[in-house]
Amino acid sequence: MKLLLVEDNIELAHWVVNLLRQENFAVDCVPDGERADQVLKTQRYDVVLLDLRLPRMDGRDVLARLRRRGNTVPVLMLTAHGSTEDKVDCFSTGADDYIVKPVDARELVARIKALIRRQSGGMSSCLTCGDLEYISDTREFRHHGAPLSLRRREHTVLETLMLRQGKTVSKTILLESVFSLDDEPSADAIDIYIHRLRKHLAKSSAQIMTLRGLGYILRKKDPE
């Protein structure tokens, strides 16, 4: 899953990005409101973390423009001030949640996961594909009850396929879910991650199939 952090405090932004990447999120980070507004016109995210007071464009204005475009991505506002007036103003503009700095790491991750669950419309706490399980609360994969040890980008690719299980997922969607704006992925990056995942799933009844020219699909193997 991919997040956008809009934060002008360099040290805080660095800390939050590292925290979220440790939680297997792909993260883009921009330092001002104008840049955020431009990025949100072209990129798709699962959650946006938006500082309230930003240079070049206020966080409220970024949020208002986002909602006027009909974009319903969950937005978690970050602010150094927790006044009732600020909270009411943010919620009335279209924010989904609100957290006051200094940010507690566990609370931030928990709130992000709660927004993802809410956006997914009550997604089951455990998705399955054959004997492969995905625990939505922890975003963990398990095979025959044992955790599946994956690298961060492998995890993101498999998660994207699992959440769209049975549907074709294009290479473009996988690239967008895995790489941030600052990355320069090679043309065969997704093929490499798919190859590694197939090794991980060699003994599983879940399989990743290639649909040439279309993308990939995660589905249960047909019985022999």
From TrEMBL:
InterPro entries this protein is in? Answer: CheY-like_superfamily, OmpR/PhoB-type_DNA-bd, Sig_transdc_resp-reg_receiver, WalR-like, WH-like_DNA-bd_sf
Q: Which residues form a coiled coil?
A: none
Which PROSITE patterns does the record match to this protein? OMPR_PHOB, RESPONSE_REGULATORY
Any idea which UniProt keywords this protein has? DNA-binding, Phosphoprotein, Transcription, Transcription regulation, Two-component regulatory system
Domain called OmpR/PhoB-type: residue spans: 124-220
- Name of this protein: Transcriptional regulatory protein tctD
Q: Which GO terms describe its biological process?
A: regulation of DNA-templated transcription
Q: Name one Pfam family in it.
A: Trans_reg_C
Protein's gene? tctD_4
- What does the record give under GO molecular function? phosphorelay response regulator activity; transcription cis-regulatory region binding
